[in-house]
Structure formats: structure tokens, C-alpha cells
């Protein structure tokens, strides 16, 4: 059995939720097919990556890196998440520092603790799960708005959907209570898409064994 990381699963669910109309209008395309029914011990990177480029991220004083836990990217920039310090930095494709996104604090638009950072269609988000808030910023770090979720809305992972809603994954310790669910634009739980006991059960839903 092969286990699929939850980030990949959330992305697949996002495509299923938001791309029905696209599938109806699209007749051609290209994709990479990986056969998991006959696994190999080694999968050379060259089998699916043509070129590798090294980019050095440089931060000016007084900024510095603690521990980088995630790097997200758009067509023109990189977002680097420093989970140890609780900061997000944006860079050009050549590694040039552009700006910090958001800041820690108690003022409007500030977050107490960085739980998750994720990209939206035209903006970026920082979730502060302890305060049950999702802060929305421009790519250049300007504050847009804060979405206040209910205290019953708990999630371990979250991504933004093209329609403005959010796809959430909640891992509960009790059997049958872990779930993937939909949050609306107001921070309210809209509906549960699937309950599961373990990641392999989700994988089975998309045909991965």
C-alpha cells in the first residue's frame, strides 16, 4: 500500500470541487501518469524533472532565517515560510528579497501564531488557529481582511479554492471523526465531504492502492 500526503489529497479534492465546468469544455491536455501498482525502489528525479536550478534566498538586515518549513511559488515569486520565527518572506525568482507578509501581534491584521500559510487566487493567507482567524494579505504584504471562524471549526491543513471557499482537513483522535470539509467565505463550516479513519482510506477514494 502507498500512502499519499494530505497536501496532495487536498489539492486533488480542490480540483474535483472546482473544475467540473473546465472538464466539460476541455478535450485535450497533458498529464504525468505514475503507476503505483508496480512500485520501484528507486525513482530517478530525471524521470520527471528536466532541469534543476539552485536559487539562493538572501534576506537583508534585520531579517534572518530560523527554520524554513515550506516554500510556495507563483509564476514570478517565491514565498518562504519560517515556522520557527512565525514569518513569511517573499522573493523574486532570482532570490532577491521583496517583502515580509503580515506580522505578529495583537493589532488588527496581525496574527498571534502562524499555523498555516497558503496561496489564494489573488492573495495569500495566514491562519491563526489558536485565535480561529484567517488573515488575508496582498502578495506585497498589505492587509486585506480577517475571516473569523467558529471555535468548533478545527483543521490541521487548509487550502483556498478558486471560488473563495476553503478546503480543510481535520485529524481527530477518535475513530471515524477525521474528515475533509468545506469552509465558506465567512469562516463557517458549510459541509463535510468525507469522513475517514486513516490516510489510506482517503487514498482508496481516488484509486491509489
UniProtKB/TrEMBL annotation:
<dbReference type="Pfam" id="PF17170">
    <property type="entry name" value="DUF5128"/>
</dbReference>
<feature type="signal peptide">
    <location>
        <begin position="1"/>
        <end position="23"/>
    </location>
</feature>
<dbReference type="InterPro" id="IPR011042">
    <property type="entry name" value="6-blade_b-propeller_TolB-like"/>
</dbReference>
<keyword id="KW-0732">Signal</keyword>
<protein>
    <recommendedName>
        <fullName>6-bladed beta-propeller</fullName>
    </recommendedName>
</protein>
Amino acid at each position: 500500500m502507498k500512502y499519499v500526503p494530505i497536501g496532495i489529497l487536498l489539492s486533488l479534492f480542490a480540483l474535483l470541487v472546482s473544475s467540473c465546468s473546465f472538464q466539460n469544455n476541455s478535450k485535450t491536455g497533458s498529464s504525468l501518469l505514475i503507476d503505483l501498482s508496480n512500485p520501484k525502489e528507486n525513482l530517478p528525479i530525471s524521470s520527471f524533472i528536466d532541469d534543476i536550478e539552485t536559487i539562493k534566498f538572501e534576506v537583508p538586515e534585520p531579517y534572518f532565517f530560523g527554520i524554513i518549513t515550506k516554500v510556495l511559488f507563483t509564476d514570478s515569486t517565491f514565498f518562504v515560510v519560517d515556522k520557527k520565527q512565525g514569518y513569511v518572506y517573499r522573493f523574486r525568482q532570482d532570490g532577491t528579497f521583496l517583502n515580509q507578509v503580515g506580522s505578529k501581534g495583537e493589532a488588527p491584521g496581525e496574527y498571534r501564531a502562524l499555523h498555516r500559510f497558503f496561496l489564494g487566487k489573488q492573495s495569500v493567507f495566514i491562519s491563526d488557529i489558536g485565535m480561529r482567524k484567517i488573515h488575508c494579505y496582498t502578495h506585497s504584504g498589505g492587509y486585506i481582511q480577517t475571516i473569523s471562524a467558529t471555535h468548533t471549526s478545527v483543521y490541521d491543513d487548509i487550502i483556498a479554492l478558486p471560488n473563495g471557499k476553503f478546503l480543510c482537513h481535520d485529524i481527530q483522535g477518535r475513530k471515524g471523526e477525521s474528515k475533509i470539509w468545506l469552509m465558506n467565505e465567512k469562516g463557517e463550516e458549510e459541509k463535510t465531504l468525507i469522513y475517514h479513519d486513516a490516510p489510506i482510506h482517503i487514498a482508496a477514494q481516488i484509486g491509489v492502492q
